[in-house]
Amino acid sequence: MPKLEEIQWCFKYSPWLQITIDLLLMSLFVLQHSWQNRKAVKEFLSNKGFRVFERLLYNLGSCLALQVLIQLWHPIPSWIVWEISTSVYPLAWWFFAITHIIAWLIIYGGCFVMDLTELLGAKQVFYSLQNWPDPLSLKSDGLRRFYSHMRHPSFCALTLLLLIHPTMQIDRLILAHVFLLYMILCTRVDDVDYCYQRRMLQRKERDLNCS
């Protein structure tokens, strides 16, 4: 029977065990994201009188799952896929810094463009307290259809944040691929959504040119 010290050593230093734990944590996050988004769960909340809190509870569950992932995550510094020394190559530091700043600005900007309070679920609660209609029902059919297919502010920016990094450890690379694969499989944006986005962009351009 293995000693306690051997078990602790294996838990702390075995890369394969750490990868397994990280994969389980990622699975927890993915399952939460998928389970709370199921139609049956939404109908259950609606039947129990919590329909107005649906989006709020979804974000709360996402935050909790993400915190569990962050707190219990096992980095694997011994397995490095690539490493670029930013102290040796100062231009590389600027490249990574500017790339990440732009990516975060795109994500934050996308949140506000997508109506941040509605995205978080706070607007639904406020409107309900005021006896106003669901804020999503006030949006156009095209936008509601797009939201039903894609609710994340930016897929490309998240890709940059996950993959453009000076030191790529194996755990970060796995995290990037799992999250990106999940987003690709779960995103259902189609030609109709693309045409809607294009029309809105053209309308904004006309409005800016006329102003």
From TrEMBL:
Tell me where the transmembrane regions lie: 16-35, 56-73, 93-114
Annotated membrane topology is:
Multi-pass membrane protein
Q: Which InterPro entries match?
A: Nurim-like (IPR033580)
Where it sits in the cell: the answer is: Nucleus inner membrane
> Is Membrane one of the keywords UniProt gives this record?
yes
Q: Which UniProt keywords apply?
A: Membrane, Transmembrane, Transmembrane helix
- Cellular component per GO, a single term: nuclear inner membrane
Q: Which domain of life is it from?
A: Eukaryota
Which protein family is named in the record? Belongs to the nurim family.
Q: What is this protein called?
A: Nuclear envelope membrane protein
